[in-house]
């Protein structure tokens, strides 16, 4: 497990302050098992969230609708983001690393306490 503070060099730095990375190989520090445990902990603690690419697509769509005052429409029941765009965390599984994106210091501290 590796914790990285996000800045402008990283995707999603506007929404999350930290990235917790896990190896995608079971033989190297059992990364996938630790990732699944982390994902389970975040879900139990903060609720469900969409995978980061879907998370961003939904968020950008709602931001665009609100920017242009489009209001509600087909399939859009409200201007507020759905629960699947969880402000506390998201995750990705599409690169060589499994990643959990964490919103801030409080969420990261609670997670670190839980796994210590």
Tell me what the structure shows.
With 116 residues, the chain is α+β, with helices and mostly antiparallel strands. 37% of the residues lie in helices and 17% in strands. It has three helices and four strands. It has helices at residues 31-46, 52-67, 105-115, and strands at 2-5, 18-23, 89-92, 97-102. Strand 3 (89-92) and strand 4 (97-102) form a beta hairpin. The mean pLDDT is 85.
Brief description of this entry?
The chain is an alpha+beta fold and 116 residues long. It is built from three helices and four strands, in the order ββααββα. The protein has helices at residues 31-46, 52-67, 105-115; strands at residues 2-5, 18-23, 89-92, 97-102.
The dominant shape is globular
- How many DSSP-defined strands? 4
> What is the CA-CA span between the terminal residues?
12 Å
Biggest beta sheet summary = 4 strands, antiparallel
Q: Gyration radius, to the nearest Å?
A: 15 Å
Assign the structural class, choosing from mainly alpha, mainly beta, alpha/beta, alpha+beta, or little secondary structure: alpha+beta
């Amino acid at each position: 497990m590796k914790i990285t503070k996000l800045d402008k060099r990283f995707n999603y730095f506007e929404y999350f302050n930290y990235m917790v990375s896990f190896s995608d190989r079971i033989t190297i520090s059992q990364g996938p098992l630790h990732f699944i445990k982390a994902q389970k902990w975040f879900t139990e603690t903060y609720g469900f969230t969409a995978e980061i690419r879907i998370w961003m697509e939904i968020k950008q769509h709602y931001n665009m609708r609100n920017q242009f005052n489009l209001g509600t429409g087909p399939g859009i029941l409200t201007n507020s983001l759905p629960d699947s765009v969880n402000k506390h965390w998201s995750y990705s599984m599409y690169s060589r690393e499994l990643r959990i994106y964490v919103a801030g210091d409080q969420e990261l501290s609670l997670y670190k306490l839980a796994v210590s």
